[in-house]
Amino acid sequence: MGFNEKPVQLKVYVDKKKKKVMFAVAEEDFVEILLSFFTLPLGTIAKLSRKHANDIKLGSLTSIYESVVDLNHKHFSHDECKDALLNPFNSSISHCQKLKVNLDERGASLGGDGDAVFLKTKANFIITDDLHVFPFMLDTSIVLFNSLGVQSINLLEERRMCFGFEEFSDLLKWSLLTNNPLTNLVIGGCKPCSSFFTNPKLIDSASISSTSGKIQMIKLLVHKSNKNVLCAQVENGFVELLFSFLTIPLGTFVRLTKGDSSPMGIINLYDSISNLGDGNYLKSEDVKTVLLSPKLSDMYQIVTELLPIYEENIGRGQFLKEQARFIVSDDLEVTISQSIDIISKFNTLGVPVGDMEVLEVTIGEQEALLLLKASLTSTSALTDCLDLFRKKLKDNVPVIDFAEDGVSDLEEFDFLEEENDIDASFVMVD
Q1: Is the residue at 414 inside a domain?
Q2: Which tens digit of pLDDT belongs to each residue from 173-201?
Q3: Is the dihedral of CA 173, 32, 117, 296 positive or negative?
Q4: Residue 152 within a domain
Q5: Is residue 64 classed exposed, middle or buried when 0-12, 13-18 and 19+ CB atoms within 10 A define those classes?
Q6: Tens digit of pLDDT for each residue in 301-342?
Q7: Is the pLDDT of residue 146 over 70?
Q8: Does any domain span residue 400?
Q9: How far apart are CA 12 and CA 23, in angstroms?
Q10: Could you give the CA distance from residue 209 to residue 366 in angstroms, rounded to a whole number?
């Protein structure tokens, strides 16, 4: 437990026969820490998952984060840019520091002074296994217990738990991976879903800005037999897009990508914010906005025009120096490799050159948002978006089929050329 942090109590009620947490009871300090999840940048969440994830990946987000870790400093426009991705700035850090447990390690916890941070008054709350949060009231509690199939609370095992930094980090992880995060945390034994990304049409079009007409071109190397993307050849702009994911607060991620195929733990918690606001439990409408639609830190400049995440009048910047090309794997790992090495790798894995094809596709705002969603809900992000990519293929761009001998067509799939070291502006501003 970190300096000045105070443990927070939770009572959970377990059905031992079903091996399931039926519900939990908490005070406002516990709920406030849950709500603070939405202020955390995705890069901070990826960093937390490295410490406490037990080798379980958070979709493809883990690969993006590890790519930044492994990429040499010489490829970044400034040394501070790498740190700004590995330890992202949180625009709501002043709120998080006042909590009894602060998951954002950039700001030291003040340990909580008894004053509410997000909630208006002290209260008790019921939290379901899938993280619906309800104020404890007799009428709503009876309805809730009936819906959960709880006939007698006395038949459930009551467990008192102490939550600190590690326990909240693990609960955050399970809320992003499963539909029953409390059971996974308290009892264990459940496997995370391998992918929640099942329908690429679930992005809410109303959340997409209509002002952006920018596109990125990328080349996908596809295994024709099973229609999986082996990797992509991309240029700087696409990598800037992927790296920008790490700066986005979780609340903004949910607002932009919310759909039926998302893990219900985090979605239910997100929806509970509106319900608490409607019930006059939140401090103000400003607090509701901070949680439902948190802003990027003003330390970041615009690095991509493909995501509607930046405030107006923000200057342009970039994380990377100008490079020729990068290779991006299906799970969004970014590397710098030679073409022959990549193709040889897949040959070794049993994919002959004659079973490969190259698709040149365009990435606009819709595709960027789908990739953003897939980054946290899938470990095969490029493959999961492939159907949409195919629909957006330019009519005048042919599919490149490799010849069986792999000679002539390989010249059309020229992966990384020599990178240059053009100076670039910083991505951060004072």
Answers
A1: no
A2: 999 998 999 999 999 866 665 555 544 44
A3: positive
A4: yes
A5: buried
A6: 999 999 999 998 899 999 999 776 899 999 999 998 777 788
A7: yes
A8: no
A9: 6
A10: 10
Extract the tokens encoding 330.
């299906």
Q: Which helix (H) or strand (E) holds 345?
A: helix 339-348
Nearest to 177 by CA among 252, 258, 266, 51: 266
Which ranges in 149-280 belong to alpha helices (H)? 165-177, 181-186, 236-244, 250-257, 264-278
The one-letter amino acid code at 285 reads: E
Domain with 152, as residue range(s), is 8-196+263-292
Q: Which amino acid is at 375?
A: S
Percent share of the chain, pLDDT over 90: 60
Phi then psi for residue 354, to 5 deg, are -70, -15
Task: Give how many domains the chain has, as a whole number.
Answer: 1
| DSSP per-residue letters across 76-128 | BSSHHHHHHHHS---TTHHHHTTSSS---TTS------S--SSBSS--EEEEE
CA angle, 35 then 40 then 46, to 5°: 125
Residue 423 pLDDT grade (very low, low, confident, very high; cuts 50, 70, 90): very low
Q: Which residue intervals of 248-335 are DSSP H helices?
A: 250-257, 264-278, 285-292
Q: Count of residues for the chain?
A: 430
For residue 259 the two structure tokens come to 């759909």
Question: Rounded to whole angstroms, how far apart are CA atoms 93 and 103?
Answer: 10
Q: Is 396 exposed, middle or buried (0-12, 13-18, 19+ CB in 10 A)?
A: exposed
Q: Which residues contact 189 (CB under 8 A, 6 or more apart)?
A: 19
Q: Going by C-beta distance under 8 Å and a sequence separation of 6 or more, which residues neighbour residue 163?
A: 7, 8, 9, 10, 30, 33, 101, 171
Tokens describing residue 418: 């020599």
Entry pTM: 0.87
Kindly report, residue by residue over 42-97, the tens digit of the pLDDT.
999 999 988 754 567 899 999 999 999 999 998 999 889 999 999 999 999 999 99
Residue 380 in domain: no
Name the band, by pLDDT with cuts 50, 70 and 90, for residue 215. Answer: confident
pLDDT band of residue 7 (cuts 50, 70, 90) is: confident
